[in-house]
Amino acid sequence: MMEKQHYNQEAEEAVLGAIFQDNSLLQGTIINESHLFFEQHKILFTIMKELHEKELPIEMIQVTEDLERKRQFDAVGGFRFVAHISECVLTTANFKYHEKIVLDHWKVRESIRKSGELQSVLANQKDFEKAQTILQDIEQIQTHSRKESFSLRDAMIEVFEGMQQDTGELTGVDTGYVALNVMTSGLQRQNLMIIAARPSLGKTAFALNVAKNAAKDSVDKSTGEIKKGAIVSIHSLETPTNDLLKRMICAEGNIDASKMR
Fold this sequence. Notes:
With about 260 residues, the protein is mainly alpha-helical. It has two domains: about 5-140, DNAb Helicase, Chain A (Orthogonal Bundle), CATH 1.10.860; about 180-260, no CATH class. It contains twelve helices and two strands. A hairpin with a 6-residue loop joins strand 1 (about 220) and strand 2 (about 225). The longest helix is centred in the middle third of the chain and has 31 residues, at about 95-125. The radius of gyration is 28 Å and the shape is elongated.
């Protein structure tokens, strides 16, 4: 009985109804059928996913046909149910809000279920390793907020479209080093670069030069417009701030660093 208190029928219907209005919402949603409470909603969501994967439209006729083919049409409530869901929202503007409501209720239900498992394990089996696993599951439930999978087809389409639009120019931030730009096409978002070498070979100086070059304004060769440099943040665990600044001044002014000490 406790689990039945933790659901929101209107929010689930709003999520499904919004997908009817805009099929592309299904691609970026963070929920799946397991997050829904009502069985007919789970069935409908599964049908929607299958249609999307087949690149078929998610609309009343196609959905009804698939439900009948799978002999699930009566199980969900027939035409009246499908029609109600397809017409229950007038706008998709609140999709993320309703999506979050659905996910929050699922978190509560799953946490209650896992807590029951934990209580049973501690009371009967005394299996503390399994209890630890359940606690980790509960923590993962509470932090669940992103899509767990992606469509390989959609990802490949995005990659190929990017390749077709490639103009040969840097796609990332200019490092100031031609060879490095050729290999990386500039500093890219979400990429981590590690500079490794023996001591006193210029790792810090090189990193500072890359940072300095990235922060510089540049001129777009095709349009002549000035492009603002990147915002750069430098964190050092061993070199004092003043020493870093001196190195940057020397590099910019072609000053012998030994004369700045």
